[in-house]
Design brief:
It is a single chain. The chain is built from 19 helices and 16 strands. With about 575 residues, it is α/β, with parallel strands linked by helices.
Length: about 575
Amino acid sequence: MSPPGFPAVSALATYTEMRDMACDGMTDAQCAYYTSTPWRNWYVADLYFGQATIAFFCAAIGFFAVLNVLHRGRQSRINALVVLYLPGYTYFAALFRSVAYRRFRLRPKSGYSLTLGETIIVCSMIIFFSAMALGPKPYYWPKDLFQDAMSPPMATRCGWMAIAILPFQVLLATKWNFITVLTGVSHEKLQVYHRWSGWIMYVLALMHTFPFIIQDIQTGTMEEEWATDWFVWSGVLALVPQTFLVTASIGCIRNRFYETFKSLHLVMAAFFIVALVLHCDFILTAGWYFVGFGVTYVVSWLFRWAIAFKNGFGHRADIEVLDDRMLRLTIPTKLKWKPGQHYFVRFLTKDIHAFTSHPFTVATVPSKAGVSSMEIYMRMHGGMTAKLGRRDGSVGVLLDGPYGGLTGDIATFDRVLLVAGGSGGSFILSVLQHLAQQGKTSTCQAVTVVYSCRTPESATWFSSAFTELANSTDLPITLFFHVSSLAQGVSTPALSSTSSKGEKTSFSSTLPVLHGRPNVPAHIRELTDLFGTLGVVVCGPKELDYDVRNTIAAEQLKIAKGTVGCEECYLHSEAFGW
């Protein structure tokens, strides 16, 4: 007997005792049918369905952890060639990427699909849970054998699978998490799986709920159950915030009301967890899933605050208005980060924005010693960014990070293509600076930069930054600068001149401007025709990402067949929004 007032401890410690009650109150025929297979035995459903869910997620994480080891080995200066020339590596890598990179355009104004790789993963989740929910029979107990109402088998198994997803929901949502540590997939790229697993959990919750409703209606006990059964109305109580969470996560709703969504998301998630704990009442092993949820959340929270304390609280950002739409923040700091990484920045203003933080990519790389200049470019919209644009001088900031960025060294490829549009230039600017610092001492021997923006005014600051980097290194950097709004413009190739170090370098002190949108597929095909390896980095609007992805996916098949000179083509894609 457990001490009074400690139901959770009691449930966690004595859950095995409930399994001995499987046939209490049943006839021999009922017991034989009930226990003939574990797929319909309520007292072991948590083991067969809850733990199967855990095994499914762990197997997926393990698979991508192995791929991450291979990926990091390939982009390591020490092991790059060892991995590249493993038997079959280039062939199977090309086939894998030809599938994983591809994306589809939906109907006009409907946007773009997930990448084919993401789609396969999501479909695998849907197929697994559909098979586990709908495969075993029966869905309801035979009426001729069980006259008294019992938990319908379908409701039981769907409930356990829904609860078992909960710890992974937290892992997929938090900025610091074990999935990122093991797989190398940054938190923002895991958001798609957080949303889809949330929908799967919600559908399973409905499949857990409606069999009870149907059964109670058929037996005429609906009103009685609602009035007397704790589990009925506590389950409905949990469905209310869960319905809000999945509905508000729909892209068009989330993007339109993001600040509201972000605030209410946390409140409703807390409401949901409390209601779910009350509903489950620590039956069988339910408590362990809440322990898993709590541990993963607390560990992530502690790591984030440890990172914040390590970063310090004395940073200030100097604000510079570049034009009517763009700001540049310069933050002197001793922090270190990698190319393309981002920080969550909290601006210490005297308003409500001090309670929120927003992700911004760092456009520079840190100095090897001493104080670095962290530069962040941000486009002015409404709210916080508009207020910063009207502010003179500097503002105190708290920095949480760094997160994301490149998972390896892009300089391990023979040639690198950097493609960006709009404020996506911040991402490739830091990558270009990283490559320029290494010069010809790395494997990379040439860089091509393709940048596009809408207006010349918006492009002035990136133009000078790209040109300055091209002038500062012995690494050949070819620049293509496009302004899409120009009806007419100068259409000249990048100028070739001699740097101060006497090396041949492609640059221009006055960067030539090309009108219209860049023909990115042509740049990619030109580079894949050359012998060697190619690394491509893209950051920009979805249409630009779509063109780059699908062109590279098509080139992968040529690489696998050996019809082009390129031995390997790797893509890193960075999205504007999550």
